[in-house]
User: What shape does this take?
Amino acid sequence: MTGYLVAIATLVGIRALLTLGLNVQWGLTGLVNLGVVAFFAIGAYTSGLLAVSGVALPSAGRPRW
Assistant: This one.
């Protein structure tokens, strides 16, 4: 159960940092910078490809059954 909570907290933290970064750029300055979104998308796509191919990721929070 602890591993699951750590994995969820990690995902929430990553998305919170992304959201704060986008809020600073779009909300406060009005600049449209899609580079941050592109890097996040590339990382998510690469992580998905690695997960499908069977590579164990350290932040996956595998259950210890």
In short: The mean pLDDT is 80. The two ends are 10 Å apart (CA to CA).
